[in-house]
Automatic annotation (TrEMBL):
This is Diketogulonate reductase-like aldo/keto reductase. Belongs to the aldo/keto reductase family. GO terms for molecular function: methylglyoxal reductase (NADPH) (acetol producing) activity. The keyword Methyltransferase does not apply. GO terms for biological process: methylglyoxal catabolic process. The active site is at 44 (proton donor). InterPro entries: AKR, Aldo/ket_reductase_CS, NAD(P)_OxRdtase_dom_sf, NADP_OxRdtase_dom. It comes from the Bacteria. The keyword NADP applies. Substrate binds at residue 102. Residues 12-253 form the NADP-dependent oxidoreductase domain. Keywords: NADP, Oxidoreductase. The record marks 69 as: Lowers pKa of active site Tyr.
């Protein structure tokens, strides 16, 4: 099973929208900080840089967790497996620890893409498989279609978005969630209550946000090009939010309900 989503204290390093040497350098710095789980995608255009950095970082491949995601344009029999093989080549030649469908299929029928994902897994092109941006109904379909466990549903998850319904359904279905946009692309800094909560713990608003996600049982994925910020995002295990503090952030999420990915072309009808 994939280490990113089985470790209760696991934190992932995201690589969107980094490209070129910026991506390579950021991954190397993240390894130095302590990250071992790395997230990329065909859509990001940086699989080769991520793969190169992890090959030269000095950490054994067995200690690393690499996630990549199949672009929706490749959800057909002619392109799916070749695209995954290209991803494997770009990442250094070994199957990714986790292969995800990046978005639900346009039109809503997710079964064909899930079948192709299962086929890739059976061919040894991924050590585990999962989905991203799936709704409750789509998660239910994934569980019914896939023979392999659904290792994660990677979704937008942060203190400005109420994902309580999705989280409850994921728990019921046995699908761990992982969180992208963990600090809402900086929007959390517009809400002083997060900074106020951080002051009580000697932490920043970003660290409070990431800790809230972690205490929800969700694996946070964060990105920075600055080692200082990488380290701060990683160092979230030395404090805990109380039930009262967690509830206060829950209230913020329900009140603001800001979804960054609302207008993405592949976005499904979200659960609210």
């Amino acid at each position: 099973m994939n280490l990113l989503y089985t470790g209760v204290n696991q934190r992932g390093f995201g690589t969107w929208p980094l490209t070129g040497d910026t991506a390579r350098r950021a991954v190397l710095d993240a390894v130095e900080v302590g990250y071992r789980a790395f997230d990329t995608a065909q859509m990001y255009g940086n699989e080769a840089e991520v793969g190169a950095a992890l090959a030269e970082c000095g950490v054994p491949r067995s200690e690393l967790c690499i996630t990549t995601k199949v672009h929706p344009d490749n959800y057909d029999e002619a392109r799916f497996l070749p695209s995954v093989e290209e991803s494997i080549k770009a990442l250094g030649g070994e199957a990714p620890d986790l292969l995800l469908l990046h978005w639900p299929t346009l039109g809503g029928d997710v079964v064909p893409a899930l079948t192709l994902l299962q086929n890739a897994f059976e061919r040894g092109l991924a050590r585990s498989i999962g989905v991203s941006n799936y709704t409750i109904a789509q998660m239910e379909t994934a569980v019914s279609v896939l023979d392999a466990p659904v290792t994660t549903n990677q979704v937008e998850f942060h203190p400005l978005l109420d994902q309580s319904k999705l989280l409850a359904a994921a728990s019921r279905l046995g699908i761990p969630l992982s969180a992208y946009c963990s600090i809402a692309r900086g929007k959390i800094f517009e809400h002083p209550e997060l900074a106020e909560l951080g002051e009580a713990h000697g932490k920043s608003a970003a660290q409070v946000s990431l800790r809230w996600i972690l205490q929800k049982g969700v694996s946070p994925i964060s990105m920075s090009t600055k080692p200082k910020n990488m380290r701060a995002n990683f160092d979230i295990l030395d404090f805990s939010l109380s039930n009262v503090e967690m509830a206060r952030i829950d209230e913020l999420a329900a009140r603001v309900h800001h979804r960054i990915t609302a207008s993405v072309p592949w976005a499904p009808k979200w659960d609210v």
